[in-house]
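Input (PilZ domain-containing protein):
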Amino acid sequence: MRFKRQEPFRYQFGQPLPCTFRITRIGEREVETDKGAAEIHDISPRGIRLETNLNLPIDSAKGELEVELQFTIVDQPIAVRGIVIWKKAYANEFQYGLSLEISKQEEMRLIGEIKRHASMYARKKESN
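Output:
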């Protein structure tokens, strides 16, 4: 499936942002897996690109794969759910594109944290 981004912006982290995730649903079946480690490479209010060494069971015959991510951009812990929409393999790593399923309030909070991070990163760069 080809995915066309319609977000107002997509923020790419200078250093990938560590996160944890777990699978919460495969198709119609609710599941609760152990947490896995990953890194977020870029983020928007509607999507995330992450990388992990775990090979997630992406299989259209089984239906959508929903995951719950937990991460901190600046200092506020964030937990969001998303649907895995694509997967790419690179050597021993896998990249995944997630479409976030968040409320308008969660979206505004996420945008605020991204802006705070970008501002802090810009000031840090200027002082070097």
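Helices lie at 104-127.
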